[in-house]
Design a protein that fits this description.
alpha+beta; 4-stranded antiparallel β-sheet; 41% helix; globular
Length: 181
C-alpha cells in the first residue's frame, strides 16, 4: 500500500490544502541523492513519479527497499531526531513534492488537530513498516499491508473508511502537481 494514502486518509480537507500550498514540486535526476545517511533531512517528500532506492552502509550499500509514486520519504525524521539510517537515491529521473521541514515543524507546533492527525498517520505507517519487516524475516503469520494497493484485508477498520478519499486525493495530487508550480 502506498504510504501517502495513510496520511491523506487521516488529514482533513484543510490539512490537505495546507500541504498543497506549502509544498513545492522538485525535479530529481537519476543518481541524485535525496536523503543522505547520517545527515539531517530538510523536508518531507511525496514521490509524484519515478523510483528511488533505499540503501544502508551497514548492509554494504545493498538496496533494502525501492520506493515509487505515492510513497512518503523522510517521515522518520519527524518522529526521531537522529540522522537518517539510510540513503535514498533516485533510480530514474523523478518528480517529488517537497514540504520544507521548518514549515511542517511550525504547523505541527501550532495546529494540534493537524499534529494529531499527522502523527497518527505516521504511527500507522511506521507500524506497517515494522509488521512488514517482521513478516519478511519470517516471524509473523500475517501478510504485510503493502502486498498491493487493493489488499485491504489487514487494514485497521478506521483506515478503510477513508481509504477511497485518500485514493482520490492522491490521484488528484499526482495529476495536478506534475503540471503545476
Amino acid at each position: 500500500m502506498k504510504k501517502s494514502l495513510y496520511i491523506l486518509a487521516e488529514l482533513s480537507d484543510r490539512d490537505f490544502e495546507w500541504l498543497i500550498t506549502t509544498g513545492r514540486k522538485r525535479q530529481v535526476h537519476q543518481g541524485m541523492i535525496l536523503i543522505h545517511e547520517g545527515q539531517p533531512v530538510d523536508a518531507l517528500y511525496i514521490i509524484l513519479e519515478g523510483s528511488f532506492a533505499v540503501t544502508a552502509q551497514a548492509l554494504e550499500g545493498n538496496v533494502i527497499a525501492e520506493l515509487s509514486e505515492g510513497e512518503i520519504v523522510g517521515e522518520m525524521s519527524f518522529v526521531d531526531s537522529r540522522p537518517p539510517s539510510a540513503t535514498v537515491t533516485a533510480q530514474t529521473d523523478a518528480l517529488i513534492w517537497s514540504i520544507p521541514r521548518p514549515h511542517l515543524a511550525a504547523k505541527l507546533g501550532q495546529d494540534t488537530g493537524f499534529a494529531s492527525r499527522f502523527y497518527h498517520a505516521l504511527a500507522v505507517i511506521l507500524s506497517d513498516r515494522l509488521r512488514d519487516t517482521v513478516s519478511r524475516l519470517g516471524y509473523s503469520k500475517y501478510r504485510p499491508l503493502n502486498e498491493g494497493l487493493d489488499s485491504e484485508v489487514n487494514l485497521n477498520p478506521d483506515v478503510v473508511g477513508t481509504l477511497e478519499l485518500a485514493k482520490v486525493r492522491l490521484n488528484w495530487l499526482l495529476r495536478q502537481l506534475k503540471d503545476t508550480h
